[in-house]
Design goal:
273 residues, alpha/beta, TIM Barrel, ten-stranded mixed β-sheet, 10 strands, 28% helix, 19% strand, binds S-adenosylmethionine, binds iron/sulfur cluster
Length: 273
């Protein structure tokens, strides 16, 4: 299907596309959104057919991997239809990033519709802390979602944890043990200046990947591995576990020169004007 390879002005070949399918979300994570949000008017949100057209166009230009994201992709009502459609494009990899709240009921239908891998955000294993970070989220629901995803036999499941100093950094060892026990990968992310936020100071909350690695190394050996998911994470393995531990370090290790992805927002006004 591919005719030309999509290459940007810096010579980077783009073969990985992240498609945002909604700007809406059922959580209000403190590092991502303000408590009171104004979302796009419905008529400015790409329709399912438009998103599928964008995806097909990228595939015709050599894209091999698509990730659906948001906002929260699973709050979009027609999401299964979109997954089913994109699932027919013969992609090498087809993934979604989700907060996990809808996975108890959606994991199996998503897998059956053709989705291959899931990234599930999990910043805390303490129900109160989880509620305070997400403002509206319920930890038990997300844990149920992680189990549902494991039962649905996705090809890969990875947890994403945004680490905040003085917020959830003390939970790093527990999160590693949880990932080992559930046999899922985990990636720790440095907080980025993205999204409107109102109630914490990003500068003070920054916990660098080096600091996180030092904490993990107090409990486990970490062996660097050249494995690459086509994204910005650097991966490590532990000698006594099959899982990978990743670090995304936009502050401490700039990765722009090797970036292979484009990001498409769901806003329609200039795309198909
Ligand atoms: N709602 C889904 C979720 O939370 O997984 C998908 C969208 S969310 C924007 C995608 C990922 O970005 C999540 O893992 C989230 O934790 C992370 N994220 C959001 N805001 C961030 C920020 N300011 N810095 C670093 N990561 C952030
Ligand atoms: Fe929603 Fe994901 Fe942002 Fe949290 S990180 S508010 S779950 S979009």
């Amino acid at each position: 299907m591919s005719q030309n390879k999509l290459t940007d002005r810096f010579g980077r070949t783009v073969n990985y596309v992240r498609l945002s399918v909604t700007d809406r979300c059922d959580f209000r994570c403190v590092y991502c959104m303000a408590e009171e949000m104004t979302f796009l008017p419905r008529q400015q949100v790409l329709t399912l057919e438009e998103i599928a057209r964008v995806a097909r166009t990228f595939v015709s230009l050599g894209t091999e991997k698509i990730r659906l994201t948001g906002g929260e992709p699973l709050v979009r009502k027609d999401i299964l239809e979109l997954v089913r459609e994109i699932g027919t494009y013969g992609l090498r990899d087809f993934a979604m990033t989700t907060n996990g709240s809808q996975l108890p009921t959606m994991a199996e239908p998503l897998r059956k519709a053709g989705l291959k891998r899931l990234n599930i955000s999990l910043d805390s294993l303490d129900p109160e802390k989880f509620a305070s970070i997400t403002r509206t989220g319920k930890l038990s629901r997300v844990l149920e979602g992680i189990d549902a995803a494991r039962e649905a036999e996705f090809k890969g499941i990875k947890l994403n944890t945004v680490v905040m100093k003085g917020g959830n950094d003390h939970e790093i060892p527990d999160l590693i043990e949880f990932a080992r026990r559930k046999n899922v990968d985990i990636t720790f992310i440095e907080e980025m200046p993205l999204g409107e936020i109102s109630e914490h100071d990003r500068g003070q909350a920054l916990c660098t990947s080096d600091e996180v690695r030092d904490i993990v190394r107090q409990h486990h050996d970490l062996i660097p591995t050249p494995e690459d998911s086509g994204g910005p994470a650097r991966y490590y393995r532990m000698p006594d576990s099959p899982i990978k531990v990743g670090f995304i370090s936009p502050h401490s290790h700039n990765f722009c020169s090797t970036c292979n992805r484009v990001r498409v927002t769901v806003e329609a006004d200039y795309c198909f004007a």
